[in-house]
Specification:
Strand order of the largest sheet: 3-2-1-4-5-6-11
Largest sheet: 7 strands, parallel
Radius of gyration: 18 Å
Order of helices and strands: EHEEHEHHEHEEHEEEHEEHEHH
Amino acid sequence: MKILIIGGCGFVGRAVARVCNDREHDVVTADLPGQGADVDLDVTVEEQVVACVEGQDVVVHCAAIVGPDPAKVEPGKTVRVNVTGTANAVEAARRQGARVVYLSTATLYGTRPDLEPLREDDIPYPVSHYDATKYAAEVLCKSYRKDFGVDVVCVRTGFVYGPGHSTGEYFVEAAMQNRSVRLENGAESPCDFTYVKDLAMGLVLAAEQRELPEPIYNVTGGVLRTRGEFADAVSAVLPNADIEIGEGLNPKMHLRGPCALELAGRDLGYVPEFTVESGVRDWIREIEDV
């Protein structure tokens, strides 16, 4: 299968490329100039995207400005990359008859302090500019699926950690560099942590399946763990880690429950392989092997 990974040199894109190569797909990575991709690409330029998609069976679209803080720094650019870039990808796929697997985010579920499992048909409640752009991109994907018959699905994930992570503090790299971590609060903050290798496998499974009956799939770890438990997992492998997290919740993190994985299990065959503990161990091995 010919698979184009847009954003192929980013945190998730690199992991997707590795899984694709392991499963013997014909992979092309596309990213901004200077990133080392097979093809240089500006996703905001429709003609470039159309040219990249030509001849491909599947487009795994990972390119985005990620996270609320970066989105606030460059709000206009965030709209162009996250919304217009996605529109260009699905339009190119419409012309070429390719599938699109769009990497979305579970932050679209918004604040859910009841911590109940999050299901794909729950009403989204974007809470930031970043969320709004990801939701707008999802709406475009669904409209191309309904109105034009484009074979496109959205994969929602969240709290993704692992080698090369781009957002969040997950303590591993600080501990391995003998840097102290001091956080005022947040030890009890619950997160549906997702190891990047699990997410990458879920995206590739979505690329491989013959039929995808749903427009949206959750692909996460599927369980709630706390930030304190994550820090403990790091300290268990790296006993000299100097990590202190204050008690209670981090008020900057909106609460939400774990993502339900039934649809991904049924249609993609997705089952997360890694727990927090095994994911942390694998991440440390990856760094030590470099």
